[in-house]
């Protein structure tokens, strides 16, 4: 959650490019980079005078410019998902060393905790995608404290931390599938035994 590798992208300094009427070959001098996470990030500004690095933090300053409620909800969803994942892991260990005797400890309980943990991860991932795609999160961050220059997003892509959350939700779904499969009672295959004929000679022997 704390690593600033949720989103990366390329930003164009539109104001600088418009001032010099830059064409395609010259636009390279006005294209910078941006990366950010839930708490911090950074960008490289390219406005025709070379790259200038800057770092920023989401809290407490930038949160006023973003959709505060949505951003805080993402963090809360992930914290709750981590809590339920730990609870699920604890009960899985309990089930492994002890015979389940309650629904909250047995297969039904394992399904419940995995469903809750995976559900909150899905909510967090969906909320983050909504913040990026619907609320222009990258563009708002790129233009934070920019009074003269205006930046336009050319490209943005989800990075490792985002895909780890997606993989986590997938793992919980696989757990639910494995629990469901383990509850199926498959018919046992019995081998046919040959009938033994006992004769009088066998008895005497």
Automatic annotation (TrEMBL):
Q: Keyword Ribonucleoprotein: yes or no?
A: no
Q: Which domain of life is it from?
A: Eukaryota
Q: Does the keyword Transport apply?
A: no
Query: Per the record, what is one GO cellular component?
Result: membrane
A Pfam match is Clarin-2
Query: What is the membrane topology listed in the Swiss-Prot or TrEMBL record?
Result: Multi-pass membrane protein
The record's Gene Ontology biological-process terms are: sensory perception of sound
Q: Where in the cell is it found?
A: Membrane
Predominantly, its location class is: membrane
Q: Which UniProt keywords apply?
A: Membrane, Transmembrane, Transmembrane helix
- Family matches, as PANTHER family: CLARIN, CLARIN-2
Q: Which family does it belong to?
A: Belongs to the clarin family.
Protein name, UniProt field: Clarin 2
Question: What organism is the protein native to?
Answer: Chloebia gouldiae
């Amino acid at each position: 959650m704390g690593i600033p590798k949720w989103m990366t992208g390329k930003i164009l300094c539109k104001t600088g490019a418009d001032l010099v009427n830059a064409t395609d070959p010259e636009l390279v001098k006005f294209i910078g980079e941006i990366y950010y996470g839930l708490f911090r990030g950074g960008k490289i500004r390219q406005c025709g005078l070379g790259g200038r690095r800057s770092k920023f933090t989401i809290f407490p300053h930038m949160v006023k410019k973003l959709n505060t409620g949505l951003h805080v909800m993402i963090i809360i969803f992930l914290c709750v998902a981590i809590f339920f994942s730990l609870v699920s892991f604890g009960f899985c260990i309990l089930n492994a060393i002890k015979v389940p005797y309650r629904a909250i400890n047995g297969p039904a309980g394992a399904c419940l905790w995995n469903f809750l943990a995976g559900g909150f991860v899905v909510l967090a991932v969906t909320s983050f995608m909504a913040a990026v795609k619907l609320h222009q999160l990258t563009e708002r961050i790129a233009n934070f404290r920019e009074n003269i220059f205006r930046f336009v997003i050319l490209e943005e892509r989800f990075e490792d931390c985002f895909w780890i959350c997606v993989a986590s939700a997938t793992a919980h779904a696989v757990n639910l599938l494995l629990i469901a499969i383990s509850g199926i009672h498959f018919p046992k295959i019995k081998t046919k035994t040959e009938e033994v004929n006992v004769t009088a000679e066998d008895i005497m022997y």
